[in-house]
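Tokens for chain A. Residues wanted.
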């Protein structure tokens, strides 16, 4: 039987011990489970149809892409958390906690600044400019070329990401339960494409609300049943404690250390900023809010729900560890195995979890489709055809949403050809492509003297360095063995399973040096590192191409002192006479980023009022 064979391949690498439950003739799904899964798809379709037929019937781009800018903060906040919380996190985080302990949980610290900064810096700028796409900002601030480069970078990021999102749950489910792989990919991809194309952003946001609730319910069910079946809270706690899964605060400053407080709590802030500050999927939700206040409030409300999502997936990892602590390695598929092990025989609950998994995936890819349609329409097509009628633009937006839906299926196939820890893959994409985009926006918002050439060169350089680092890290992966963070039980398991070889290998392990050390930079720093590259290169190029008054020593001006004043100013970039050194220093000091941001945003306030 296929189910049985597939299960054995999953565990053959983990340990020579066998699992107590005999999976051979396990029937995972009853009719009611399939019904629940079908209800999820049907309800999502229903919401899509409802918004296709109510309101303005999706006849303007304002409604289709911006939800008429009429949303309240509750649906927006639930939709915000749904955008980047996919099945990747639901499967990946428990696997991470199982293997490496609760260190990853410290990413929750990054949510504080990672949401506070978007709420008070990015939202006001975008909202007051009344843009439809975040990239419109780049044209207002720099030039059309920067806008188009930013747009293409974003499209690239989201297209790869949505492939991972739609493939991950289908693959994991298939490996464990034999659920048809490509059938599931097709069903989710097509249903999502349909309701996104029919109902526009309103449907996307309201399905997100419904799907986020289902997502929480599914995770909660697994935890409750799991704790019961593992012997209660005290027993789970004892096992994870003995198994050394409860990690303390790791303050190791080494940037190559994968997860420490610094990489997660500080590097994570940049990751959050690239997602919640400047990513079009999120910016579009802020912009769809009724008022700016409502947008800020929705961003605040993301904090508790995101903490809840993180806590649920971390606790699930711990319960899973308490159940299978004798296995050393944990594959993402093992999370699904654990869920099925817990929920089988409880009709409806396996179905609820499948619904949870696909809710997470659907809510992410629907956001991707709609935001991709928006940027393609607003940034690439509309500027070329300014005379296009509203009806035609709306039709075209729908065609775009649908095309991206079909492209997503193609990307799922590409993901099929890759292979890594899915959580790491998703977070690497955010850092490698989202990091440089964040840098571009920071360059624009915080550095008044940054210019268009600086921004363009900065973005390109940032992307090149990002890919150099990212690809380098993949090619050099094998040089550094996974850290062995094992407790007593796990250590015994290693010794019996591998006859001490694993432990002796770790003794030969030494710190990488030179370029290898660069490649082993923790992926949690990717966003911050790539963002900084763009800002630094952008500033240097801006200085070289556009001289800031007061930043040059007027050497040429002194040589050509015989020239008339106005010529000297032009030829030699000499600032008006009489400026003392201290005045120049003042001028530079005035350009300190924070100070300038204040000036910039207050000037925005003034132009608004
Ligand atoms: C975006 C974060 C890091 C926020 O906690 C989290 O949702 C996450 O780990 N997401 C992984 C990507 C995904 O779930 O598709
Ligand atoms: Na999601």
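Reply:
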């Amino acid at each position: 039987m296929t189910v049985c064979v597939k299960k054995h391949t999953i565990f053959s690498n983990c340990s020579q011990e066998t699992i107590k439950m005999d999976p051979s003739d396990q029937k995972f799904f009853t009719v009611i489970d399939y019904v629940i899964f079908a209800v999820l798809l049907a309800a999502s379709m229903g919401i899509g149809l409802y918004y296709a037929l109510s309101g303005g019937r999706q006849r303007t781009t304002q409604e289709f892409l911006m939800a008429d800018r009429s949303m309240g903060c509750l649906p927006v906040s639930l939709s915000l958390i749904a955008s980047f919380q996919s099945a990747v996190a639901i499967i990946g985080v428990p696997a991470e906690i199982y293997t490496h302990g609760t260190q990853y949980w410290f990413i929750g610290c990054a949510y504080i600044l990672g949401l506070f900064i978007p709420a008070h810096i990015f939202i006001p700028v975008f909202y007051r400019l009344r843009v439809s796409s975040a990239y419109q900002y780049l044209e207002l601030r720099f030039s059309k070329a920067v806008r188009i480069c930013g747009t293409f970078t974003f499209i690239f990021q989201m297209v790869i990401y949505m492939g991972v999102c739609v493939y991950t749950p289908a693959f994991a489910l298939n490996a464990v339960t034999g659920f048809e792989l490509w059938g599931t990919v097709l069903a989710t991809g097509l249903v999502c494409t349909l309701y996104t194309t029919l109902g526009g952003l309103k449907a996307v946001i309201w399905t997100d609300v419904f799907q986020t609730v289902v997502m929480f319910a599914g995770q909660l069910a697994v935890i409750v049943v799991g704790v019961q079946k593992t012997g209660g809270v005290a027993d789970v706690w004892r096992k994870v404690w003995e198994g050394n899964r409860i990690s303390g605060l790791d303050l190791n400053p080494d940037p190559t250390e994968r997860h420490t407080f610094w990489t997660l709590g500080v590097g994570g802030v940049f990751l959050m900023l690239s997602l919640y500050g400047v990513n079009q999927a999120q910016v579009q939700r802020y912009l769809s809010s009724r008022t700016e206040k409502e947008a800020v409030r929705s961003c605040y409300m993301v904090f508790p729900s995101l903490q809840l999502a993180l806590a649920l997936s971390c606790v699930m990892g711990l319960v899973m560890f308490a159940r299978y602590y004798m296995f050393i390695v944990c594959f993402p598929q093992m999370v699904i195995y654990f869920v099925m092990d817990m929920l089988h025989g409880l009709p409806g609950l396996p179905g609820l979890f499948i619904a949870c998994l696909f809710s997470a995936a659907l809510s992410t890819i629907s956001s991707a489709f709609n935001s991709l349609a928006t940027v393609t329409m607003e940034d690439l097509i509309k500027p070329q055809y300014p005379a296009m009628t509203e009806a035609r633009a709306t039709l075209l937006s729908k065609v775009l949403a649908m095309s991206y839906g079909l492209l997503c299926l193609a990307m799922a196939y590409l993901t099929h050809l890759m292979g890594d820890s899915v959580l790491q893959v998703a977070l690497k994409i955010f850092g490698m492509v989202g990091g440089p985009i964040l840098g571009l926006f920071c360059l624009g918002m915080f550095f008044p003297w940054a210019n268009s050439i600086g921004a363009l060169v900065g973005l390109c350089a940032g992307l090149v360095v990002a890919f150099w680092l990212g690809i380098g890290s993949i090619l050099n992966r094998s040089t550094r063995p996974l850290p062995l963070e094992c407790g007593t039980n796990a250590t015994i398991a290693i010794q019996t399973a591998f006859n001490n070889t694993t432990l002796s290998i770790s003794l030969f392990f030494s710190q990488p040096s030179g370029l290898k050390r660069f490649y082993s930079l923790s992926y949690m720093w990717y966003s911050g590192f790539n963002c900084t590259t763009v800002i630094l290169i952008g500033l240097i190029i801006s200085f070289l191409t556009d001289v800031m008054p007061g930043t040059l020593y007027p050497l040429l001006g002194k040589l050509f002192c015989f020239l008339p004043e106005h010529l000297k100013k032009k030829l030699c970039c000499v600032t008006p006479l009489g400026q003392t050194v201290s005045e120049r220093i003042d001028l530079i000091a005035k350009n300190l980023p924070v100070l300038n941001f204040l000036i910039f945003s207050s000037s925005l306030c003034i132009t608004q009022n």
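The chain has 26 helices and no strands. Residues 84-86, 88-89, 107, 165, 275, 306, 310, 364, 423, 426 surround pantothenoic acid (ligand 1) (CB under 6 Å).
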